UniProtKB/TrEMBL annotation:
<dbReference type="InterPro" id="IPR022941">
    <property type="entry name" value="SRP54"/>
</dbReference>
<dbReference type="Pfam" id="PF00448">
    <property type="entry name" value="SRP54"/>
</dbReference>
<feature type="domain" description="AAA+ ATPase">
    <location>
        <begin position="95"/>
        <end position="273"/>
    </location>
</feature>
<dbReference type="GO" id="GO:0006614">
    <property type="term" value="P:SRP-dependent cotranslational protein targeting to membrane"/>
</dbReference>
<keyword id="KW-0694">RNA-binding</keyword>
<keyword id="KW-0342">GTP-binding</keyword>
<comment type="subunit">
    <text>Part of the signal recognition particle protein translocation system, which is composed of SRP and FtsY.</text>
</comment>
<dbReference type="InterPro" id="IPR036891">
    <property type="entry name" value="Signal_recog_part_SRP54_M_sf"/>
</dbReference>
<dbReference type="GO" id="GO:0005525">
    <property type="term" value="F:GTP binding"/>
</dbReference>
<protein>
    <recommendedName>
        <fullName>Signal recognition particle protein</fullName>
        <ecNumber>3.6.5.4</ecNumber>
    </recommendedName>
</protein>
<feature type="domain" description="Signal recognition particle SRP54 helical bundle">
    <location>
        <begin position="1"/>
        <end position="82"/>
    </location>
</feature>
<feature type="binding site">
    <location>
        <begin position="186"/>
        <end position="190"/>
    </location>
    <ligand>
        <name>GTP</name>
    </ligand>
</feature>
<dbReference type="GO" id="GO:0048500">
    <property type="term" value="C:signal recognition particle"/>
</dbReference>
<dbReference type="InterPro" id="IPR027417">
    <property type="entry name" value="P-loop_NTPase"/>
</dbReference>
<keyword id="KW-0963">Cytoplasm</keyword>
<keyword id="KW-0687">Ribonucleoprotein</keyword>
<keyword id="KW-0733">Signal recognition particle</keyword>
Length: 439
């Protein structure tokens, strides 16, 4: 999803003004991007329609930065489709709150039962009881017991020979005796939706009257995830969704369509195998993830506040033409120091946020002072034409600025790297930057 979408958006980013035709072309790209990511067709259609209507509004076409506005509209619309705000767990008026975990085999039900009980213990000092109602494989019960031991949470099980509904009945009785405030029921799954399983789950539901029926969905399963969500919801009227395995290389296209197709909120996301790898679902963060944009929105907001648009355009042109020189460098440093620290800002740029090379990238305020001193010791010709800076000129600059020659060389090298990198970024090419970042 994101690669395609980023391409569509970076096409826009390159332009100052956007025409109606641009909007139409971009929307076609966004539509294809979403479809390619297996987002449900109906969802894509509505989504694109909403974005197009908003993007074609006069405010966008007349604004100074239409490309940024369109990016924002796409982002806002993604957020809206996924439900705007985080939705908390339903709670029962009297204990226990009963949470039933359902989903296909391997989706992450058992793991999520463990994670959620840890979450409840950490955040509410809860005393949960786990019920092992997956009786089809002995290993499933053992898996839950291991998790229970690890978290120091009691697990109720009756082996594999008892009917799951009966297990749940007795488990609930035990929870009542021991005054557990939460009961989490781990159920069986199948490789696909299957009538026998649905009947069993419906029977457990009728007995337990769960406050939450959480459908656990593997985010890596693409379009299938939507169908699964639809099937489970129609049969069991689920109350929420947990989207797992977001630590994998999925862009979360499933989040977009599940909410739209079922109308049920995604409540948590699983981001790893460990017990603490469960997070509350935030639609706006997921929108950013789908767009692959880091904190692009924050950056745009900051930039809009602090930048003179016209000047920004001039700089952009210089970057594009590769004529960015030391005078611009000094200007930019002054601008940027109004926005926050350099590394903070760099980390907000898409492609940098998750770039391993960024880990070693720090800009010290002292370095900025040095760098300014170096530039001020250059002649106007040198500032405009960095290629003039041969060794003897560099020695003169070092003496004039009081900055050691090593630092002068380093600074010029970094300048050239940054220039090249900005030019690359301007072309929407975020790859292959690792090699350019080192010293
Ligand atoms: P169940 O069949 O639905 O009960 O699924 P399990 O809880 O047994 O999980 C199946 C596999 O997926 C296990 O190996 C889990 O460790 C793994 N798993 C579950 N959730 C996540 C997640 O959020 N991230 C990753 N990386 N693995 C997960
Ligand atoms: Mg399981």
């Amino acid at each position: 999803l994101s690669e395609r979408l980023q391409k569509a958006l970076s096409g826009l980013r390159r332009k100052g003004k956007v025409s109606e035709q641009d909007v139409r072309d971009t929307m076609r790209e966004i539509r294809l991007a979403l479809l390619e990511a297996d987002v449900n067709f109906g969802v894509v259609k509505d989504f694109v329609k909403n974005v197009r209507e908003k993007a074609l509004g006069a405010e966008v076409l007349d604004s100074l930065t239409p490309a940024q506005q369109i990016i924002k509209i796409v982002n806002d619309e993604l957020t809206k489709t996924m439900g705007e705000a985080a939705v908390p767990l339903n709670k029962s008026a009297h204990i226990p709150t009963v949470i039933m975990m359902v989903g296909l085999q391997g989706a992450g039900k058992t793991t999520t039962v463990g994670k959620l009980s840890k979450y409840l213990m950490d955040n509410e000092k809860a005393r949960p009881l786990l019920i092992a109602a997956d009786v089809y494989r002995p290993a499933a019960i053992d898996q839950l017991k291991v998790i229970g031991d690890q978290l120091n949470v009691p697990v109720f099980d009756m082996g594999t020979d008892t009917d799951p509904v009966e297990i749940v009945r007795q488990g609930l009785a035990q929870a009542a005796l021991q005054k557990n405030d939460y009961v989490l029921i781990d159920t069986a799954g199948r490789l696909q939706i299957d009538e026998q399983l649905m009947t069993e789950l419906a029977n457990i539901k009728d007995l337990a009257h769960p406050d939450e029926i959480l459908l656990v969905v593997d985010s890596m399963t693409g379009q299938a995830a939507t169908d699964v969500a639809k099937g489970f919801n129609e049969r069991l009227d689920i109350t929420g969704v947990v989207l797992t395995k977001l630590d994998g290389d999925t862009r979360g296209g499933a989040a977009l369509s599940i909410r739209a197709v079922t109308g049920k909120p995604i409540k948590f996301v699983g981001q790893g195998e460990k017990m603490d790898a469960l997070d509350v679902f935030y639609p706006d963060r997921m929108a950013n993830r789908i767009l692959g944009m880091g904190d692009m929105m924050t950056l745009i907001d900051k930039a809009q506040k602090n930048y003179d648009e016209k000047q920004a355009q001039e700089v952009a042109d210089k970057i594009k033409e590769n004529t960015f020189d030391f005078n611009d460098f000094i200007d930019q440093m002054d601008q940027v120091s109004n926005m926050g620290s350099m590394d903070e800002i760099m980390k907000m740029i898409p492609g940098f946020a998750n770039n391993p090379a960024m880990k070693n990238f720090h800009v010290d305020p002292k370095d900025i002072a040095h760098q300014k001193a170096i530039v001020y010791s250059m002649t106007p010709q040198e500032r405009e034409n960095p290629d003039l800076l041969n060794p003897s000129r560099r020695r003169r600059i070092s003496a004039g600025s009081g900055v050691p020659i090593v630092k002068v060389n380093q600074m010029i090298k970094q300048f050239n790297q940054a220039k090249k990198m900005m030019n690359q970024m301007y072309k929407g090419n975020f790859s292959g930057m690792e090699g350019m970042m080192g010293n």
